[in-house]
Design a protein that fits this description.
The complex is a heterodimer. Chain A is of the alpha+beta class. Chain A is built from 6 helices and 8 strands; from the N terminus they run H-H-H-H-H-H-E-E-E-E-E-E-E-E. Chain A folds into 3 domains: 48 residues, no CATH class; 74 residues, no CATH class; 93 residues, Sandwich (Immunoglobulin-like), CATH 2.60.40. In chain A, helix 1 packs across helix 2 and helix 4 packs antiparallel against helix 5. Classes of the chains: A alpha+beta, B mainly alpha.
Chain lengths: 235, 205
């Protein structure tokens, strides 16, 4: 990353950018892993700055009001989700073999897709990435040797669709790996616990590669420490 | 699934990240527990920026609603869950301060007089917060003045880079480089004091 990129990410971490620069920062973050790593690290620093603040305690009724607005939000989000689905499904309907999976995927992501907050952008990007793989004309299913579900592959992109994964226990997370040769490569984390979890696999899944899932400590690890719970056939 | 009281008891032992995963599944009790853990700091920063109880409350409501709606997109490899929540609330507070044109950014020390313990917080939480606060204030104090000014006015004041350039009468490029240099140096100082703390715990400042 050059100096300009570093400065852009620092400004973003401090929420100090003008709208045009903020858009540039988001673009940079979407394409650069290095920029995301820099933001992750600088955000821990700004969050530490937040702890340095002294001030009054939150008003006692605030907790209830927050839970109340979450409850109300749930009631408004559901209809939004069902309104959007018919619009997206024809777009994605080309891949008949995976249509059912797509519907479920959109259901899973519906809450995020219907959010109009800034952060839904990342969700949308990811949901689109998953939907693009699932709906792609060349999408094909690769069976799992172990685990309930399948791996859907299009080109070098892949999405894991897993049924009935128990939620990862406290302090643990599921970690996805791509095994292409000897060394498994990190490919994302997910909490599990859905009736069907749709998990985009980060990175490329080349011919002959396998996708694995292990249970690891929260935050993930650099190399798997447990035997796989889910393992796909070679792609 | 109606197991709220069981869920409540269970949640005290969950990591922040696991709570976010539950929030992603629409678990209100998990959202409440997350508020109990992060709400104090989040309210502190929102109030610091907005200097108004009602507006700070708005920032928290909007920030926690963003947590509620986008918990499914949270990725533990990108941030700690508590950091993510604080970041969302901070962003709301900055949006509000820019909308409201409320501009109060006295130095940080000016607010310490208002410090009041949270009646809902445990003694351990308060002790930890006090300890952490000393550590971060110490690191901020070690920054070059111009760098500290830039990052404090941005993070605690909600000022944008161009606003700061105008206010301080320096080129925009200078503000940008001061912010990066200041934040990167602060990160270093905090990493150092973190290591120090691991080796020789200091309980008083």
């Amino acid at each position: 990353m050059d100096t300009e990129a570093h400065e852009l990410i620092a400004g973003y971490a401090l929420d100090a950018l003008e709208p045009a620069d903020r858009a540039r920062a988001k673009e940079l973050l979407e394409r650069s892993e290095e920029a995301r790593e820099e933001l992750r690290s600088l955000t821990e620093t700004t969050a530490a700055m937040a702890t340095a603040v002294s001030g009054p305690a939150p008003p006692p009724g605030l907790r209830d009001r927050i839970l109340e607005s979450a409850r109300e939000d749930r009631q408004t989000v559901v209809p939004l989700e069902s309104r959007r689905r018919p619009r997206l499904v024809p777009l994605l309907g080309a891949a008949a073999a995976v249509a059912a999976v797509v519907a479920v995927a959109l259901g899973v992501w519906g809450l995020s897709v219907s959010s109009d907050l800034d952060d839904s952008r990342a969700a949308l990007t990811q949901a689109r990435a998953a939907a693009a793989v699932l709906a792609s004309p060349d999408a094909r299913q690769v069976a799992l040797q172990q685990g309930d579900g399948s791996l859907v592959v299009s080109g070098s992109d892949a999405v894991l669709v897993l049924n009935q994964m128990e939620a990862a226990p406290a302090g643990k997370t599921y970690e996805v790996w791509v095994l292409d040769g000897e060394t498994p490569v990190r490919a994302g984390l997910f909490p599990g616990g859905g009736s069907r979890d749709v998990v985009p696999v980060d990175g490329t899944v080349g011919p002959g590669a396998q996708v694995l899932v292990t249970l690891e400590r929260a935050g993930g690890v650099d190399a798997p420490t447990a035997s796989p719970i889910v393992a796909s056939n070679p792609v | 699934m109606r197991q709220d009281s069981l869920a409540l008891r269970r949640q005290r032992h969950l990591s922040d990240e696991a709570l976010v995963a539950l929030v992603a599944r629409g678990d209100e009790a998990a959202l409440g527990e997350l508020y109990d853990r992060v709400g104090r700091v989040a309210y502190g920063i929102a109030f610091r920026i907005l200097r108004d109880e009602r507006l700070a409350e708005d920032a928290l409501q909007e920030g926690f609603l963003a947590v509620w709606r986008s918990a499914a997109t949270f990725r533990a490899e990108r941030a700690k869950a508590s950091t993510w929540v604080v970041t969302l609330v901070h962003r709301r507070a900055v949006d509000i301060v820019r909308r409201e044109e409320r501009r109060r950014a006295e130095p940080l020390e000016a607010t310490t007089a208002q410090d009041a313990p949270d009646p809902a917080g445990s003694a351990e939480d308060e002790a930890w917060l006090g300890f952490e606060r000393e550590r971060v204030l110490g690191a901020l104090a070690a920054l070059a003045d111009a760098q500290r000014e830039a990052i404090e006015l941005a993070y605690y004041g909600g000022y944008s880079q161009s606003e700061l350039a105008e206010m301080l009468g320096v080129p925009l490029g200078t503000i940008k480089s001061r912010m990066f240099a200041g934040l990167a140096r602060l990160r270093e100082l905090l990493d150092e004091s973190d290591t120090e703390r691991t080796w020789t715990p200091r309980l008083t400042s």
